[in-house]
Specification:
- InterPro entries: Leu-rich_rpt, LRR_dom_sf.
- It holds the Pfam family LRR_1.
- This protein has 92 residues and is an alpha/beta fold.
- It has one domain.
- Helices cover 11% and strands 13% of the residues.
- It has a four-stranded parallel β-sheet with strand order 1-2-3-4, with no helix packed on it.
- Strand 3, helix 1 and strand 4 form a beta-alpha-beta unit.
- The longest helix has 10 residues.
- It starts with 5 loop residues before the first strand and ends with a strand.
- 11% of the residues are buried.
Length: 92
């Protein structure tokens, strides 16, 4: 899975796994695109998502999260993003 760049799972019924250390574990891949729109997700966004430094597209819209406007997540994404000529697209 180290070469995974795009994770597009929108419109699926998914659940965050936030059990103990699972919330803070980081995957060994670096995403450039991630879409989990309309997946029925609830709760906090896992901490590894905002740490994706090459993420140019993130869509978490139409889910049920306490961070409904994406404020904290968007701030972390912008802070951790590597310099790029592309403007990132984030949908919350």
């Amino acid at each position: 899975m180290k070469s995974l760049k795009n994770l597009l799972l929108g419109r699926n019924n998914l659940t965050w796994i936030n059990i103990g250390n699972m919330k803070t574990l980081a995957p060994n891949f670096t995403l450039s695109q991630m879409s989990l729109s309309s997946c029925g997700l609830k709760g906090e966004i896992p901490s590894w998502i905002p740490m994706q430094k090459r993420l140019n597209f993130l869509d978490l819209s139409e889910n049920q999260r306490p961070d409904h406007n994406g404020g904290d997540t968007a701030s972390l994404l912008k802070k951790n993003k590597e310099s790029s000529s592309k403007s990132p697209w984030y949908y919350f």
